[in-house]
Write a structure and sequence with these properties.
mainly beta, four-stranded antiparallel β-sheet, 0% helix, 50% strand
Length: 119
């Protein structure tokens, strides 16, 4: 079982930056890929980006590519989402997720952290 706790959300002006953190419990963190998702009011949850187990490869949605960076520290069992050049349309609840070792799907989710970007 993996438990995920996000932090670092808040209110920021357009053009600003935030860094989200996602702390994981359990001994399998370094064995699984991690992802970030977001859900804006009235919209479906959407993929933001993902990072592999070792942290040397990441993939991003087109909407955030070049502005957001995902990294991880396996020694701290933490994954990060650095968000730069924020836009009002980035306003959403951001979730981190962990892949299941067996399924390969995102089986574990955090509770989410709110990011609000003012214009």
């Amino acid at each position: 079982q993996v438990q995920l706790v996000e932090s670092g959300g808040g209110l920021v002006q357009a053009g600003g930056s935030l860094r989200l953190s996602c702390a994981a419990s359990g001994r399998t963190f370094s064995s699984v890929g991690m992802g970030w998702f977001r859900q804006a009011p009235g919209k479906e949850r959407e993929f933001v980006g993902t990072i592999n187990r070792s942290g040397d490869s990441a993939y991003y949605a087109d909407s955030v590519k070049g502005r957001f960076t995902i990294s991880r520290d396996n020694a701290k069992s933490t994954v990060y989402l650095q968000m730069n050049s924020l836009k009002p349309e980035d306003t959403a609840v951001y979730y981190c997720a962990a892949r299941g070792i067996i399924t390969g799907y995102y089986d574990y989710w955090g509770q989410g952290t709110q990011v609000t970007v003012s214009s």
